[in-house]
Specification:
elongated; mainly alpha; 332 residues; two-stranded antiparallel ribbon
Length: 332
């Protein structure tokens, strides 16, 4: 660990033309704080080497985060303090931007984090989205994923996979464990039910915001007046929204107002008009019967006692779609 820091810090010194920018005491402090965990010094180096500010300023920041000797009570004490401090600094920078007013940085980052492994419903395979698709479904600005991780480069990056799809990647499993463990993340912990609940709300809003003229839709999905990527996002929103609402990970009671608003603003009517265009091929019909229809029925049943009018309206749509699908299957 000591040799690693000396080597890397000297590399920085050559880059900035100042080999005296750090001291031996600085290195020793960091080595002791690492308590034998190489991941600690590796993360410290990545943080300090970011070029958004001077290395000395970043090093001084890390040293102020370093716990004192009497604070090494837990094996991950120093590492968790480092993760906490980096996240808090990134949160403050992100939320201070005018266009990000009202955005919850920690919640949004957790949405992308959960997406790494995928969202689990009753399907055998989890549902995963590319990072840019997820930004759209969250109703964020284009390339929002880039802005979100801009100050987390020491912990995560956006990379393209073999299929040229943009994905979030965390450098170390320890950081993922930190995000998932309330006893380590403490006040920064975001439970999965908040992620599923937020995505449910955003998916409904994405459908409501759809700019199509629903009174004059073409006969085929591919002819919708949207780009191919936007059509794919819309299909994802329609496919995922009922399953997120019905998921046991979603606090459906928190959505009472959202579902009422979605219903009152013609959300289900928009889905109804797009339904015949989506039902092409056996894979879509199987998806409807095995996951989509049951999810909508479950949403209706969950709302029946608290919001009977809305539940009845939703039930009427899903019953109609089941009849429509039988008709479609009979003509194929």
């Amino acid at each position: 660990m000591r040799r690693y820091l000396w080597s890397r810090f000297n590399d920085i010194g050559l880059r900035i033309n100042n080999l005296q920018w750090f001291s031996e005491d600085d290195v020793e402090t960091l080595v002791k704080a690492g308590s034998g965990q190489f991941i600690y010094v590796a993360t410290v180096y990545k943080f300090i080497s970011e070029r958004r500010t001077t290395p000395r300023a970043r090093l001084d920041t890390v040293l102020t985060w370093t716990p004192q000797k009497w604070q090494y009570a837990r094996p991950f004490e120093a590492l968790d303090r480092l993760y906490t401090s980096i996240l808090l600094a990134a949160k403050e920078t992100y939320e201070n931007v005018d266009t990000h007013q009202g955005h919850d940085f920690l919640l949004l980052f957790r949405v992308y984090h959960v997406n790494i492994k995928g969202y689990h419903f009753d399907d055998v395979f989890p549902t995963l989205h590319t990072a840019d698709t997820l930004s759209a479904l969250l109703c964020l600005e284009p390339q929002a994923e880039e802005t979100l991780v801009a100050d987390l480069r020491s912990l995560a990056s956006l990379e393209t996979d073999e299929g040229n799809n943009l994905r979030l990647r965390l450098y170390h499993k320890s950081f993922s464990d930190f995000l998932e463990e309330p006893s380590r993340a403490n006040d920064l912990f975001v439970p999965e039910y908040r992620v599923y609940t937020h995505l449910s709300r955003c998916l409904m809003q994405y459908i409501i915001n759809c700019p199509l003229d629903f009174d004059s839709l073409p006969a085929k999905w591919e002819r919708l007046a949207l780009s191919e990527w936007s059509r794919n996002c819309l299909k994802c929103a329609i496919s995922d929204m009922p399953r997120f609402l019905a998921s046991p990970n979603t606090a459906i009671a928190d959505h009472d107002g959202g579902v009422v608003s979605f219903t009152a603003n013609g959300g289900w009517q928009k889905v109804d008009k797009l339904f015949p265009l989506l039902m092409v091929g056996p894979s879509m019909t199987r998806f409807c019967r095995r996951g989509w229809f049951p999810s909508i029925h479950e949403v209706s049943d969950k709302l029946r006692d608290r919001m009977p009018d809305t539940a009845t309206r939703i039930k009427s749509f899903v019953t109609k779609w089941e009849d429509d699908l039988r008709t479609i299957e009979g003509t194929q």
